Amino acid sequence: MPKQVRLRRGTTSQHSAFTGAEGELTYDTDKKTIVIHDGATQGGRPQDRYLQKVPATVLTQQTVSGPVTFNGGDSETYGLAVTNQTTVNQCIVNQDLQIKRRMQTQQALAYAASVNLDFDSPNSAGGKRITLAGNLTLTTSNIKFGMEMFVFIIGDGSLRTLTFPAAWAFIGAAAPANIAANKRGLLYLLSTGVADADVWARWLVQP
Q1: Residue 126 carries which DSSP code?
Q2: Are 119 and 140 in contact (CB under 8 A)?
Q3: Is residue 72 domain-resident?
Q4: Residues in Cβ contact with 198 at an 8 Å cutoff, skipping those fewer than 6 apart
Q5: Using CA atoms, how far apart are residues 174 and 146, in angstroms rounded to an integer?
Q6: Are 109 and 196 in a shared domain?
Q7: In degrees rounded to 5, what are phi and psi of residue 170?
Q8: Angle at alpha carbon of residue 56, lines to 54 and 61, rounded to 5°
Q9: Are strands 160-163 and 25-28 parallel, antiparallel or unpaired?
Q10: Per the domain annotation, does 182 fall within a domain?
Q11: φ, ψ (nearest 5 deg) of residue 186
Q12: What's the confidence (pLDDT) of residue 152?
């Protein structure tokens, strides 16, 4: 018969007054969970406080059966960051709520006959500025759900043709064929999926 290994054990109350050796594992008989010790923290670190992802795809829903508190982050670093869409049934905010519009950053893109708009770049959540020196064709990459982007297109001294991905859905007016000399245009993009066909576009130009 295989050998059986049993850990030291105790109730939650007993653990609260116990400081285990560094690297020691004990068993909480009330919580039915392992407790990890570091030789300094009284009570150790019960593993029922931590979320362990069930091995599966990134779309497998995970469940936390209790309140969750995030103590990380500071005034310059997010304590919680969610990459994709989130559903919140009720939200209580204890401190100031700051809703940051995506226009808080702006990135100057070097002019080229073809310019790629990367929805997953560090500056994707903001405005992009292109000063024309010739005709312009726009392409996209790394499109993600729920991203919005502002593209400022600044004309030079000549009329310039503009070409966009054919699958974009332009709202309010058709895609512009060109921009007149010395005019400024604003292109607003919103993605509802991960392909060019999921990009909604709106074009405004200086009269």
Answers
A1: S
A2: yes
A3: no
A4: 143, 145, 191, 192
A5: 22
A6: yes
A7: -85, 135
A8: 70
A9: unpaired
A10: yes
A11: -120, 120
A12: 95
Q: Which two tokens stand for residue 192?
A: 């509802």
Domains of the chain: total? 2
- What's the rounded Cα separation, in Å, for the pair 115 and 111? 7
Question: Which has the minimum average pLDDT: 2-16, 88-102, 143-157, 176-190?
Answer: 88-102
As a whole number of angstroms, the distance between CA 64 and CA 50 comes to 9
Cα(35)–Cα(53) distance, integer angstroms: 18
SS3 16: helix
Same domain, 25 and 111: no
- CA–CA separation, 105 and 116 (whole Å): 18
Name the token pair of 117. Answer: 């708009």
- Segments forming the whole domain that contains residue 169: 103-205
Q: Which residue has the tokens 């609260």?
A: 16
Residues 40 and 109 in one domain: no
Residue 55 lies in a domain: no
* pLDDT value, residue 197: 96
Identify the weakest region by mean pLDDT among 119-123, 145-149, 166-170. Answer: 119-123
Q: Are 54 and 64 in contact (CB under 8 A)?
A: no
- Cα 88 to Cα 81: distance, rounded to the nearest angstrom: 14
Clarify whether residues 112 and 45 are in a common domain: no
- Residues 165-183: b if buried by 16+ CB within 10 A, e if exposed: beebeeeeeeebebbeeeb
79 within some domain: no
Residues 43 and 115 in one domain: no
Together in a domain, 34 and 121: no
Nearest to 136 by CA among 119, 156, 118, 121: 156
